[in-house]
Write a structure and sequence with these properties.
Elements: H1 3-18, H2 36-51, H3 55-62, H4 66-70, H5 73-100, H6 107-131, H7 133-151
Helix pairs in contact: 1-2, 1-5, 5-6
Length: 156
């Protein structure tokens, strides 16, 4: 699974798990007044936490989500297969990173390394996201202004 497929699966998982939280850029704030970008980070954190759970606990957590409860058995099966693919990709990516670093890890170390690797990656991504928040907002506003100017209905 390539990176873009992984991102699509993660967005799908987030959309199903989070319920009412939209993951599209530029969406309105959440009902509690939270910025959409912050909602995305909360959804992302929930996904990362779910990916770390053993299968039995994962299923128990998923059963708590209204959208998952509404799925029929076939949809649940396909959804769980997608999650399993994302888990495998996470595991493989962490293994490749350990190899790149020249580390020889035992079974327990592999699990701990994978958890720490993804934890650190999430911290880095979140920090970069925070640092670029103003720039992203300015670019989004510029884009919206240009699109409105270009596509505004010209009544007359």
């Amino acid at each position: 699974m390539g990176r873009s497929e992984l991102v699509l699966v993660a967005c799908f998982v987030a959309g199903v798990l989070v319920g009412g939280t939209s993951l599209r850029a530029g969406d309105r704030p959440a009902p509690d007044g939270q910025a959409p970008e912050e909602c995305k980070w909360e959804a992302r954190q929930k996904i990362v936490q779910l990916l770390e759970l053993p299968d039995d606990r994962l299923l128990a957590e998923l059963e708590k989500w209204p959208r998952f409860q509404k799925m029929d058995l076939g949809q649940k099966g396909r959804f769980l297969e997608r999650i399993a693919r994302v888990q495998m990709e996470h595991q493989r990516a962490a293994e490749r990173e350990a190899e790149r670093l020249g580390l020889k890890l035992s079974g327990d170390q592999k699990v701990a390394f994978e958890r720490q690797y993804w934890h650190h990656r999430e911290e880095i991504a979140h920090q970069i996201w925070k640092e670029t928040e103003g720039q992203r907002k300015a670019l989004r506003e510029k884009m919206e202004k240009e699109l409105k100017a270009q596509f505004a209905s010209k009544e007359g």
